[in-house]
Amino acid sequence: MPRFHFNVYDGETSIDEAGTELPDLVFARREAIRYSGELLEDAGRREGLGPEWRMEVTDESGLILFALHFVVIEAPAISKKPEE
């Protein structure tokens, strides 16, 4: 059974050294979405997210198979400073 690694980059790098054995890429995508949701939920309870969060899923050789990106973009109305 292939081993997939779920590496997270959110201002800090968290490399999944052990990986997880899953039947195929379809199961790896499902696990990546599930696990990302869990991590994002936890981050939302703490201080919040930085401007970018991503997970790269690799095979045993380190080849990136796919990535999930979560980007926080402030609306122009929020990022404007009030006029003095």
TrEMBL record:
<protein>
    <recommendedName>
        <fullName>DUF6894 domain-containing protein</fullName>
    </recommendedName>
</protein>
<dbReference type="Pfam" id="PF21834">
    <property type="entry name" value="DUF6894"/>
</dbReference>
<feature type="domain" description="DUF6894">
    <location>
        <begin position="3"/>
        <end position="70"/>
    </location>
</feature>
<dbReference type="InterPro" id="IPR054189">
    <property type="entry name" value="DUF6894"/>
</dbReference>
